[in-house]
Amino acid sequence: MAVTDIERGAMRHALSVAPNGPRGVNPQVGAVILSASGEILADGWHRGIGTPHAEVDALSKLTPDAARGATAIVTLEPCNHTGRTGPCSEALIAAGIARVVYAVADPGEDSAGGAQRLRDAGIDVDARVLEEDAAQLLESWLTVQRLGRPHVTVKWAQSLDGRAAATDGTSKWITGPAARADVHRRRAQADAIVAGTGTVLADDPALTARNESGELFPQQPLPVVIGSRAIPDAAAVRRHPRSVVQYDGGLAEALDDLARRGVQRVFVEGGPTLASAFVRDGLADEILTYVAPVLIGGDRLALGDIGVATISQARRLTVAAVHHLGDDLLVITNPTGESEN
């Protein structure tokens, strides 16, 4: 059965309610129950660990048998496993749902297979409806599921000629207030913000997320420092609302531990050395480059050695977006995993 415009509209509605649920170990998922005539009977979202999933949340708002013959629209494939709650696929079957439309397939080893379970029960199933929109919402959770580590955004600010600082090491401020405000907004969306000990000792960053008035956002990312050098007791990061976590080294090991702590989104802005290490090790999922229309010259490059010895090894990037922020540009790219050949 072909996906209808009404079903696509319902998927947009499901995507709009999904962020009502908290970010965390579980994905933000939205669901809509449509009557046979295309009327929205109920919507729902996952409200956190141990609570009913989005499909069950939506079904709970209906009287018994009200969902019989209806269509369920879900942003993520209904799960097929028993954890703190039962399988959503079984709940949909028990409710008498006749058709299920979902956006993104569940990549989990234990939770996948819901679509096939529904088909085996005689339910009509369609997939990949508004998949790109749903994947963007679920981006960090999908990275954790597929790679076993948090989704990593690497950020740096640079002059038009690619410098991160002047010859004397000064770098405040290369970009303007609009760009800096954008950085803090993105920090607030992260679960952890990462810097190297070199940056902590040289620049004394607070690793907080602040609004344009300088006040802390209610949600603060976990401050993380990479490197073996001691962090002074008087360092600004020691006054962070959350206790700083430090790793001696080993980026992959640090990310593994952060994943175990429930961190899904990591924001890296620890200077050229740390940024280069994440890129070199293939651990950058997204790169934010803030470019200011100034020339600095010198050897203080925004990015160092990333393991490229010849042009055929150059790291390929896909441009996802370009934004004007005052006089500055923000270029958002994603590594393709390919070299120029």
Describe the 3D structure.
By secondary structure, the chain is of the alpha/beta class. The chain folds into 2 domains: 5-144, 3-Layer(aba) Sandwich (Cytidine Deaminase, domain 2), CATH 3.40.140.10; 148-339, Dihydrofolate Reductase, subunit A. Helices cover 26% and strands 24% of the residues. It is built from 10 helices and 13 strands. The chain has helices spanning 5-17, 54-59, 88-95, 114-120, 131-137, 139-147, 177-189, 197-203, 251-260, 272-280; strands at 30-34, 40-45, 71-76, 99-104, 124-126, 151-159, 192-196, 222-226, 245-247, 265-268, 286-292, 315-325, 328-339. Strand 4 (99-104), helix 4 and strand 5 form a beta-alpha-beta unit. Helix 3 packs parallel to helix 4 (114-120). The radius of gyration is 23 Å and the shape is elongated.
Per-chain topology:
Blueprint: H1 5-17, E1 30-34, E2 40-45, H2 54-59, E3 71-76, H3 88-95, E4 99-104, H4 114-120, E5 124-126, H5 131-137, H6 139-147, E6 151-159, H7 177-189, E7 192-196, H8 197-203, E8 222-226, E9 245-247, H9 251-260, E10 265-268, H10 272-280, E11 286-292, E12 315-325, E13 328-339
Parallel strand pairs: 3-4, 4-5, 6-10, 6-11, 7-8, 7-10, 8-9
Antiparallel strand pairs: 1-2, 1-3, 11-13, 12-13
Helix pairs in contact: 3-4
